[in-house]
Amino acid sequence: MSQGPPRSQFTQSVLAVDNARKQRRTRLLAGLAGLLALVLCAGGWMLWAAADDSEAGDQGAKAVQQAPDAIRDTVETAPSSPVGHLAVDYQEKGFAERFGRDASVRAPGTWATDRTLVRGVGGTLKGFAFGTSKEVWSTELGGPVCGTTRHVTADGRTAVLFQEPTKAPDDDKPKKDDDKKKGDKKGDKKDKKGSKKPKGKKHDKKRDDKNKKKGKGKKDRADAPAPAPCTRLALVDLDTGKKLWQVTLPDAEDASPTSTNVTMTRGTVTVAWSRGSVAYDMKGGRRLWQDTRPSVCGNAGLAGGNALLALRACGADADRTYRVQRLDPRTGKALWTYGVASGVQRVHLVSSEPAVVAVAVRGTGVDKLLALDDLGAYRSTVDMPEGRYIDDCFTARFGTVETCDAIVAERDRLFLATEPKDPEVNRIVSFDLATGKVVRKFDSRGRGTMYPLELSGGKLLAFRGSADGVAPDAVVSLDPESGRETPFLLFSVPDGAGPVKPGETDVLVEGGRVFIAPKELRAEPGEDAAGAAYGALGVEGA
Q1: What is the pTM of this model?
Q2: Can you state the percent helix, strand and coil of the chain, rounding each to 5?
Q3: Is residue 210 scored above 90 in pLDDT?
Q4: Which CATH homologous superfamily contains domain 84-163+228-541?
Q5: What distances in angstroms separate CA 406 from CA 115, 334, 382, 414, 481, one per listed residue?
Q6: Contacts of 440 (CB under 8 A, 6+ apart)
Q7: How many helices (H) and strands (E) does the chain have?
């Protein structure tokens, strides 16, 4: 095992909460009297809201100002009132009319800035302003989105992978015989390059006529999965929808949508697929390095954020082994390498800093979580007995790395949600990453199933569904030290949005707002022939 760089600095959130904790200790005694008064005056669920008078202080902690190209690390401020008000209500109108009543369209990618909510739908990115639900911009990528990263820069940029544009030969116009022949030659040439474009114009015309009757056009057909490699990368300004730069991945004809991932770390955008990886400078898209040489160890993915981890798969089938490496983002050189024990069937990168790896030993589900230190040395193991915890690492519909939506790790702690004992009862368990042992348990107490979202300002933000459809859904704030629970925002998720589950729904907290977005769009049930699909819900406090 090679030795790496000195231990990394704390993240912005950790720096902020350390300062907040010092302030909290000095005011603890003075705050007890005020806390007691609040509790005595409160009633109903408002008693729950006043359970922790120190919450506003911690959530109001300000993070150290970040560089524009740093990965955004917001310290969330709790709204003055936890009662949620509508900020965004995005519905894809006419969905059933265009795609069919039983159709589904991929919607990978949900991002938010201080001003805009952005959704990826098929081959389109759409931006929505807060307060009016107005679509303020729409950007056509030219091919279906096939890879996204949850990371956003401090100034509101993110990277998106999409498939090669799939241009049909004048679908909406009948072709003359001479034009058909020319089109066939062009199509044959593209087929050799891997476009896999169907031949036979008679077949295409029938298909086009059928699509016309359903109201489908070029734009809608581009939203459907296409048999094209995932080779286009763009950096997008989330507030304007502008593509700041766009490149084609080198030697990536075998980059399939299911095995290619994109991630970011400060100043760098990286992409990995089975036989290659490449990095670009975030400022202008200049290529920094590439590794597209055939090797016994293929790329299984990259995890970004405050550090860059690479997962290498070596060998094949029963003899396959895995290595985890920390890379220098600007050069691609390995700073350290950790060899995962032989016999492990599957490996997933959960987090880059702290380095946390999910492994499957006995089957296809996660058996253990391995924590590594900043030098790549083994730190601890968190056991995950079958059926005890929610495991969605290997079931993600989009992307292959950084998709364990029910696991949150930061610094010295890790949080897991247990599988519900009944539909509304479960708990979130925190572990010490230095030892792998349980530290604290947060019970849902029958109010609705909970799962963790993120750590912010030292508090764990978690989603809690409604237990009966009458009580509100909520994002709650959990204090890992005291065990106290406080509502962050209370709201109701529309039936059309579907059940909020890890791996199936994006749940974001950004700028004091909460956003709920399904990863696949489907027409809402009802008699409306156009059949709108629910795209996203955004709520904010008073």
Answers
A1: 0.79
A2: 15, 40, 45
A3: no
A4: YVTN repeat-like/Quinoprotein amine dehydrogenase (2.130.10.10)
A5: 27, 29, 15, 11, 20
A6: 429, 430, 480, 483
A7: 7, 34
